Amino acid sequence: MKTIIALSLLAVALAAPQAPTEPIPIVRQDSQINPDGSYQYSYETGNGISADEKGALKNIGAEEPALEVQGQFQYPSEDGGNIQLTYIANENGFQPQGAHLPTPHPIPQDIQRALDFLATASPQPDSQ
What we know:
Helix content: 10-25%
GO molecular function: structural constituent of chitin-based larval cuticle
InterPro entries: CHIT_BIND_RR_consensus, Cuticle_Struct_Prot, Insect_cuticle
Order of helices and strands: HEEEEEEH
Structural class: alpha+beta
Organism: Papilio xuthus (Asian swallowtail butterfly)
Protein name: Endocuticle structural glycoprotein SgAbd-8-like
Distance between the termini: 69 Å
Radius of gyration: 25 Å
Keywords: Cuticle, Signal
Number of strands: 6
Strand content: 35-45%
């Protein structure tokens, strides 16, 4: 029984993905933090990964300002292409954009017409 457990652990250890043997160099790196709370950073690595981001406080008419962040990152995909994502994050939430992201199916015309009607119809009284 001990032999089976030992062989099982050995098999799991051998099946685990191996880490890269060489460190990946950082080709470019820049970072700046300003006294007003705004910041920016960017970097690029030797294996094709890069990212840029900047953020600043934004007056949205509330008691406290909101942080607005804009940025992008990209990395090579497994099939040899390039994955790129741009984003903005603010009081309206995180809003990513990228060609690889799924998009919703179009709403059928009959359903859209019904939704438009319901949006303009007067409320119905509750019947109890």
